Amino acid sequence: MEYKISPSLMCMSLIDIKQQLAVLNRRADMLHIDIMDGHYVKNITLSPFFIEQIRPHTPLILDVHMMVENPSDFIEPIALAGADFICPHAETINRDAFRIINQIRSLGKKVGVVLNPATPVEYIQHYIHLLDKITVMTVDPGYAGQPFIPEMLGKIAQLRDLKQQKNYRYLIEIDGSCNLRTYQDLLAAGAEVLIVGSSGLFTLDTDLDVAWDKMLDQMRQARHAA
């Protein structure tokens, strides 16, 4: 199975953003941008303004992960800033999921949802057929560098089997501790998009091109083993 690589921009060096973005433009499939409001999770990272600033400088798909309590407040600004995928947490749209999905679609964007580790696939069963991407959190959300939760491998496999059985179109994306220790299990379970952050990419070498080569070598080994 082919897979896509999506670097998490919250883990890049903002001091070296121009140089690192040039490397990612040559090598990545898409870019992952975390929006946090300091309420849904106790952290604040990137913003619609950040999306607006980098959009002219990258041709890549911008995949926006919304860790916010009120997604409807952010969707239009994120869309206007240049996002391609807009992905709220399923837990935050339970009251108005169909309205949120329609809002994102009306702005010409693709729709994703994100599932926290303790949230089952059944939580989204009534609108799963409408989704372009499902992100499985394999760590609790909010911070980089957390330990992998192995129980999520069953959830990934469940989404893979549902997609095959029902001919759904969603991509299966993984967010959290995608690295040398987990690639083999993630790919075997059915992962299609790997979000790479601190442990998977940015700390492998101070030269991002070298770090990317090291990451690819690790992924190739895992793929052959899987």
Automatic annotation (TrEMBL):
<feature type="binding site">
    <location>
        <position position="34"/>
    </location>
    <ligand>
        <name>a divalent metal cation</name>
    </ligand>
</feature>
<feature type="binding site">
    <location>
        <position position="65"/>
    </location>
    <ligand>
        <name>a divalent metal cation</name>
    </ligand>
</feature>
<protein>
    <recommendedName>
        <fullName>D-allulose-6-phosphate 3-epimerase</fullName>
        <ecNumber>5.1.3.-</ecNumber>
    </recommendedName>
</protein>
<keyword id="KW-0479">Metal-binding</keyword>
<feature type="active site" description="Proton acceptor">
    <location>
        <position position="34"/>
    </location>
</feature>
<dbReference type="InterPro" id="IPR013785">
    <property type="entry name" value="Aldolase_TIM"/>
</dbReference>
<feature type="binding site">
    <location>
        <begin position="197"/>
        <end position="199"/>
    </location>
    <ligand>
        <name>substrate</name>
    </ligand>
</feature>
<dbReference type="InterPro" id="IPR043677">
    <property type="entry name" value="AlluloseP_3_epimer_AlsE"/>
</dbReference>
<comment type="similarity">
    <text>Belongs to the ribulose-phosphate 3-epimerase family. AlsE subfamily.</text>
</comment>
<dbReference type="Pfam" id="PF00834">
    <property type="entry name" value="Ribul_P_3_epim"/>
</dbReference>
<feature type="active site" description="Proton donor">
    <location>
        <position position="175"/>
    </location>
</feature>
<dbReference type="InterPro" id="IPR000056">
    <property type="entry name" value="Ribul_P_3_epim-like"/>
</dbReference>
<feature type="binding site">
    <location>
        <position position="175"/>
    </location>
    <ligand>
        <name>a divalent metal cation</name>
    </ligand>
</feature>
<keyword id="KW-0119">Carbohydrate metabolism</keyword>
<keyword id="KW-0413">Isomerase</keyword>
<dbReference type="InterPro" id="IPR011060">
    <property type="entry name" value="RibuloseP-bd_barrel"/>
</dbReference>
<comment type="function">
    <text>Catalyzes the reversible epimerization of D-allulose 6-phosphate to D-fructose 6-phosphate. Can also catalyze with lower efficiency the reversible epimerization of D-ribulose 5-phosphate to D-xylulose 5-phosphate.</text>
</comment>
<feature type="binding site">
    <location>
        <position position="65"/>
    </location>
    <ligand>
        <name>substrate</name>
    </ligand>
</feature>
<feature type="binding site">
    <location>
        <begin position="175"/>
        <end position="177"/>
    </location>
    <ligand>
        <name>substrate</name>
    </ligand>
</feature>
<feature type="binding site">
    <location>
        <position position="32"/>
    </location>
    <ligand>
        <name>a divalent metal cation</name>
    </ligand>
</feature>
<feature type="binding site">
    <location>
        <begin position="142"/>
        <end position="145"/>
    </location>
    <ligand>
        <name>substrate</name>
    </ligand>
</feature>
<comment type="pathway">
    <text>Carbohydrate degradation; D-allose degradation.</text>
</comment>
